[in-house]
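Request: Not sure, any thoughts?
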Amino acid sequence: MSRILAETIELYRTAFRKTGQSLARGWMTMLAVVGFGFLLVLAAQIAAPLGMAGGFLLGAANALLVGATLSLIEQSITHARVLTVHDIRDSIGHYFWEVIGVGFVLWLPLMALDMSMQTNPYGQLLSYAVLLLLFFLLNPAPEVIYQVRHDSPLDVFKSSYEFVLENWIEWFLPFALILIPTVLSPMGLQSFFSLSSRVGRGAGLDFFQLLVLPFAILGSWLDYAGIPSSISWYLGLLLTPPLAVAMLLFRGHLFASLHGFSRRQRRFASPFNKDS
């Protein structure tokens, strides 16, 4: 048991170290995320009066910006050089169709779910349960898109599902730890279900949710530290972009360490195995 704990701690320590290195190389991604956020707000204002056509326009804008963000995260992880403004420009268009494809495949079943739950007295509860399941099973979908070879959105779903089944403890443990203040706060579980259902609806590929989740986590930690809400709100706005990028980088490095290796294989390759 002690060796398993030591191997798990080493796994996270390595991911944290690589995250710091990637953050130093890809600090421009934080600026890009802020700029992308303003662009999506502008797109939402343009799309608002256009009805269904506006919804498709906003979906395309979201896919464009999420794909660009994933491309910048990928470059921060794999490249040895510092990212530049040119990398931000060149990232536009990357993974656009992958994000669109995943969103489209989810859109029809979720629309049917929403319609069927309107007349069901337990509709909201059942909807939360389905979206929570999607949140867990499709949680690594962003990493699958830019790290795993796939031919269709269904391949993304399959890879995410298989990865979660194999690595659910190692993958979700860091997330559970940073959620402690959220869960322990008043209405904490309700906040968690609300957040996870929104993230699950978009398989983690909604640009606003990439920022809302870190903002909510920051707010919980700042409240837990006793910082007044009038101050914590501004601190949250300031710290959300670097936290969002750091979380994506950490997830990327952790996914790379876990994907394609079973626990038995990782244990065999672990330096702690030499002591056994």
